């Protein structure tokens, strides 16, 4: 007997800021909870450099937005507390969240560092009603991990993600098919997943301001306006149609990758490099964890028009180095990106081999040897003593990696 699909979307509220706050309070219970003051994660307040990666609820009252330059945010609120990002810490919190979620279903798709889809279709009957179970997960995350999440409950991934974006923070929302007309259709068109700034402007110019108006529009007309593939996609989304499955990560022996769907369109290389750095750090750490090397680096981008491009390069020698992966990813992006605003950026490594078969290159520099050993040593110390026992950021600053990103020693992700 087939069951009606049931999907949960888990979304951490202000993830980097929440994790930063939780970690500071873990180390010192009397520390300032950044979530209660006007604060942001990202960049350098003194140098007024970098971008806002996450902001507190009080910061929203000043009009501070994710993705805007730190200098601009400080003009809005000179008293803004800015703290540097510590991606190694955030990755550990992400892992603990995924481990908790695996108690409820084996069918988990980690959509980004702070988001996941759970296919609860086959396991919901073990725990209770959908809303009861979602609230149980939400409360466990707060009690055990000390940060909050929103959870969307729906029959497909698109509707679950839309539901999790309803009123925040620390809430659960449903968006079943019979609720689309009342809960989703009145929303502004810009709130529909994958409708970016450029598409929103085009739609508003022809009088489409809400998701419901888009759902009622002739798709043939939309194709002439937006292009066939993208028009069909967002019209389906507006109607609540999405057939994509919850897909676990691909087998380790095929490749290692990470991607992120951006909150705002990115059209400058500085910000893109920053994102590539965080993605490369995740990929490099996973390669080292599994004692494998990659021989190919690929960058994937997807623009507002749903146009996907990839560009890859084969390395002279297999590697598991964050530095090498990041540098190659930056070079690839420079070569093929025409600065069309991006909604998604990804880094992938393929041609995976066991590190035991790697022969040391005769042309490997002493600096690169030290870099490899340092990265492995940092991973080992963190695994044994915790992620805050060694700060990779200061190490990477010496290698001037962060000169290519949007800040100094802040932009690390394990």
TrEMBL record:
The keyword Heme does not apply. InterPro entries: DNA/RNA_pol_sf, DNA_pol_Y-fam_lit_finger_sf, DNA_pol_Y-fam_little_finger, DNA_polymerase-Y, DNApol_IV, IMS_HHH_1, Rev_trsase/Diguanyl_cyclase, UmuC. CDD domains: PolY_Pol_IV_kappa. It comes from the Bacteria. Binds 2 magnesium ions per subunit. The record marks 16 as: Substrate discrimination. Its EC number is 2.7.7.7. It is found in: Cytoplasm. Keywords: Cytoplasm, DNA damage, DNA repair, DNA replication, DNA-binding, DNA-directed DNA polymerase, Magnesium, Metal-binding, Mutator protein, Nucleotidyltransferase, Transferase. Its cofactor is Mg(2+). It catalyses: DNA(n) + a 2'-deoxyribonucleoside 5'-triphosphate = DNA(n+1) + diphosphate. It is an enzyme of class 2 (transferase). The keyword Coiled coil does not apply. Belongs to the DNA polymerase type-Y family. Poorly processive, error-prone DNA polymerase involved in untargeted mutagenesis. Copies undamaged DNA at stalled replication forks, which arise in vivo from mismatched or misaligned primer ends. These misaligned primers can be extended by PolIV. Exhibits no 3'-5' exonuclease (proofreading) activity. May be involved in translesional synthesis, in conjunction with the beta clamp from PolIII. PANTHER family: DNA POLYMERASE KAPPA, DNA REPAIR POLYMERASE UMUC / TRANSFERASE FAMILY MEMBER. This is DNA polymerase IV.
């Amino acid at each position: 007997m087939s069951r009606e699909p049931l999907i949960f979307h888990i979304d951490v509220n202000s993830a980097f800021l929440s994790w930063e706050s939780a970690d500071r309070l873990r180390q010192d219970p009397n520390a300032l909870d950044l979530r209660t003051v006007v604060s942001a994660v990202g960049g350098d307040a003194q140098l007024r450099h970098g971008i806002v990666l996450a902001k507190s609820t009080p910061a929203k009252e000043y009009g501070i937005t994710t993705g805007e330059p730190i200098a601009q945010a400080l003009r809005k609120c000179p008293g803004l507390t800015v703290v540097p990002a510590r991606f190694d810490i955030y990755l550990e919190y992400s892992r603990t969240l995924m481990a908790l979620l695996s108690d409820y279903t084996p069918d988990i798709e980690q959509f980004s560092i702070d988001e996941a889809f759970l296919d609860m279709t086959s396991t919901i009957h073990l725990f209770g009603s959908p809303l009861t179970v979602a609230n149980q997960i939400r409360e466990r995350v707060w009690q055990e991990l000390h940060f909050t999440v929103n959870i969307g409950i729906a029959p497909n991934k698109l509707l679950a993600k839309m539901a999790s974006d309803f009123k925040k923070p620390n809430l659960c929302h449903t968006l079943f098919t019979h609720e689309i007309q009342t809960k989703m259709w009145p929303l502004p068109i810009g709130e529909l997943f994958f409708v970016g700034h450029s598409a929103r402007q085009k739609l508003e110019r022809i009088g489409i301001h809400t998701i419901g108006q888009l759902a009622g529009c002739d798709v043939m007309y939309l194709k002439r306006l937006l292009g066939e593939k993208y028009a069909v996609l967002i019209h389906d989304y507006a109607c609540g149609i999405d057939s994509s499955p919850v897909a676990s990560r691909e087998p380790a022996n095929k490749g290692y990758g990470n991607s992120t769907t951006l909150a705002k369109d990115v059209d400058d290389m500085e910000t893109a490099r920053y994102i590539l750095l965080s993605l490369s750090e995740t990929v490099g750490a996973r390669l080292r964890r599994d004692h494998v090397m990659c021989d190919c680096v690929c960058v994937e981008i997807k623009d507002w028009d749903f146009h996907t491009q990839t560009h890859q390069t084969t390395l002279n020698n297999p590697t598991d180095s964050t530095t090498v992966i990041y540098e190659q990813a930056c070079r690839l992006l420079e070569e093929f990106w025409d600065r069309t605003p991006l909604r998604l950026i990804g880094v992938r490594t393929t041609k995976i081999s066991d590190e035991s078969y790697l022969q040391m290159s005769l042309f490997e520099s002493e600096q690169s040897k030290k870099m490899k050993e340092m990265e492995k040593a940092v991973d080992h110390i963190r695994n044994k003593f915790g992620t805050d026992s060694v700060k990779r950021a200061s190490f990477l600053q010496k290698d001037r990696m962060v000169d290519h990103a949007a800040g100094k020693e802040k932009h690390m992700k394990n």
